[in-house]
Amino acid sequence: MKLLTHNMIQCHVANCKSHNFPLKIVLAEENSIENEECEMNPDFIRHMLPKLEWSALKNTVDSLGLGNLPEKVPSPDNIPLETLAVLHHVLLEVDVKNCQLVCPNEECNRSYPVVQGIPNLLLTKDEV
Amino acid sequence: MKLKELEGWLGQLDSFEDPKILLEQYPTPPHIAARMMYTIENSFGDIGGKAVADLGCGPAVLATAAEMLGASYVCGFEIDEDVIEIAQGNKQDMECEFEIVQVDVTKLLGMDKRFDTVILNPPFGTKKNKGIDMVFLSKAISMATTAVYSLHKSSTREHIGKKAKDWGVKMDVVAELRYDIPAMYKFHKKDSVDVRVDVLRFDCT
After folding, report:
1. Which of A23, A71, B78, B140 is the most buried (most CB within 10 A)?
2. Could you tell me the sign of the dihedral formed by the alpha carbons of B188, B189, B192, B194, in that order?
3. β-strands B192-203, B144-153 pairing
4. Span B132-150, average pLDDT
5. Residues in CB range of A17: below 8 A, 6 or more apart
6. What is the pLDDT of residues B145-155, one digit of tens each?
7. What is the SS3 assignment for A84-114?
8. Quick one: which H or E segment has residue A27?
9. What is the model's pTM?
């Protein structure tokens, strides 16, 4: 699971309506994050800025200690090179293989497993 | 990449091993998938450098095609664990990077406008799932900022056109193809059936 994917996933439990995003990443073991190096496409990163939930991304990147992002979303036309590099890395190269995604809503706390990089958002009958 | 080359690659992908009729699991033949995806990129430029979602991705034929045609980010959404395993195998064989999320697409939440392009070969909504094609389609439209491309039986074109009007999106028929459905299930009496299908484009701008 790339963090770009994580940036779009909220808790899916029907009754969980608030504070249900971003899901907290609880890593399964030391080696549950891999890096898949790929070529940077700066235009794509700029293009995606308006589609990101910035504070959720920053929060997640900080909690995993993956790099420094500014507090506020940079403007696409005026984004420093180093920020571009961090964004490329955290959005498209970092690959979380095994973890739990935990709903931040304390009344919910539902945990979704990520196994071999695939988040499972399926619910049981009484959660729908 | 040339059309023939794309079709050749897609022809090497594994398909459903044990298709489930309740989920209306029919493979997207390489011939159809390649033409659909090639048209989307070459006539509309909606794949290269874009964020693309594939709803109900199955063995990830369309997702693989999207990545091969230069999409910068691709995510397939699929409910069925068995078929996800096949998609995962295809991803490794083709050295692809696309993402897979296991979820019931009809219950997918919070993805509004997060993708440029959404592609899908939805369940056609026959048998016990009447209307599910429209549920997939409206979800797709909510997720895209540019366009949705979807495969439907040509016989349902008028009905879908009316829905699109209700939703306030412009619909165009961008390709008419023949979908050769091989006999896969017990209730299939003929060896294969030729079904006419449309690739429909929904403008989401």
Report:
1. B140
2. negative
3. antiparallel
4. 96
5. none
6. 999 999 999 99
7. HHHHHHHHHHEEECCEEEECCCCCCCCEEEE
8. strand A24-27
9. 0.94
pLDDT of B12 above 90: yes
DSSP state of B70: T
CB B96 within 8 A of CB B89: no
Q: What does the DSSP 8-state code read for residue A52?
A: S
Q: In terms of C-beta density within 10 A (0-12 exposed, 13-18 middle, 19 or more buried), how is residue A41 classed?
A: middle
Note which residues in 78-117 of chain A have CB less than 8 A from chain B: 92, 116-117
CA distance B107 to A122: 9
Using the beta-carbon criterion (under 8 Å), do B107 and A48 form an inter-chain contact?
A: no
- Of A41, A44, A118, Cβ closest to residue B84: A118
Whether residue B163 is predicted with pLDDT greater than 90 in this model: the reply is yes
In the chain, the amino acid numbered B123 is P
What is the Cα–Cα distance from B154 to A58, expressed in whole angstroms? 46
Per residue in A18-49, pLDDT tens? Answer: 999 999 999 988 789 999 999 999 999 999 99
List the one residue out of B163, B65, B161 whose CA is nearest residue B120: B65
From chain B, the residues in CB contact with A117 under 8 A are 99-100
Relative orientation angle of helices B61-68 and B30-44, to the nearest 10 degrees: 40
Bond from prior residue into A22 cis (ω within 30 degrees of 0): yes
- Mean pLDDT throughout B135-140? 96
Give the model's pLDDT for residue A27.
94
